[in-house]
Protein 1
Amino acid sequence: MRRVFRLILVLMLGYYITEWWFNQREKQVAAPVDPAPPVKPAPPHSTAPRSSDPLTDIDGIGPAYERALNALGIHTFAQLAAQNADELATSLSSVRVTAVRIKRDQWLEQAAAHANLPVSSSRWSGNDGNSA
């Protein structure tokens, strides 16, 4: 008789544990999942020009520098030609370019030439002591 009682007890215990486990699973499955907010496409940047120039055509500017310039909002030769070498170098400190390099490689002058703008050489502006 004890064996039968133990068997019934084990079966009932197993039944209740299984029933509890299924209820827990149903609660997890039926729990409302917060849907991810809909992803809205980014509006076009209003200050970005409609067309951009290949800034890599300038000697000394490679793809990495072009990406950094584009991140600053400089997409055309005219925009680059309007920059100040010292301020541009400060803005491009993440890609480790110096004003000396910008002036040496004549980025601004080359950009002005590509944009068909009058070339104002900021490289030799002012008296650096070497001009006659």
Protein 2
Amino acid sequence: MSQVEEPRANSKSGSRSTVVVSLAALGSVIAASSCCLPLLPFIFAAGAAGTSAFIAQLRPYLLVLSVLLIAFGFYKSWRAKQCNCKPGRISTFILWFSAIVVFVVIFFPQVIANMVADLLAGKS
């Protein structure tokens, strides 16, 4: 009897989904931290306070979403290795970079806020 081989997953689609998950995690952590670090404060000064107040209420959910998306990204990367598909260097780098950013934002939000405030004030 002949065995029927299952088609292997396309390594590009696995790599692409890992990149999308990593970028989604970065997006959610940026949204979560926007309560403390309004983006482009000089352009959106009028709406930043209202947006920050609204997003501050969503911060715990956005941080949980970030952690879940990072975990899903690592699962997809691990799963790709199980299917004999090697994840690309860029997707692996983005996944690890996203994980580090999420970790830093979750555990050191005030340090980041102080660094950005000093940067915007022109201090070295």
Protein 3
Amino acid sequence: MDAEVWVAIAFVVFLGVLYRFGAFSTMIGALDKRSDAIRKELEEAKALRDEAQRVFHDYKAKFAAAEKEVEGIIERAKSDAARYSAEVDAEFDAFMTRRRAMAEKRIAQAEASAMAEVRAAAADAAVKASEVILRTTLKGEAGEALVTKSVANLRSELN
């Protein structure tokens, strides 16, 4: 018999001894425990993945809600800015209208004052001219009294 045959017989005997002492059942039990541990780890990994997906979807929903809220805030800010701009424009227009009215009133007052000054100057010139004419045409005491009285009357009537 060859060495190869003896090795094959020794291997078969070795397997028989292992079987007799329960080594196969121990190995199979260890493999079963290992497969159960791997199965549990896979189930935990699946549960963690599901949890991660749920959290991801929650945050995605929160992000979408936050974006919507930001858009709302931006829209409100734009409308507030437009309203404030319109209020400022209206206030500015009202201010300019008041300033224009005040300027027109001052111009009218200045015109009235200038007209009064022109009338007074014209009256004074007319009085002086009439005084000169009357003095040259009327001579003597009666003429002077008449001129003085006429000048006083003329001044009171013109003013």
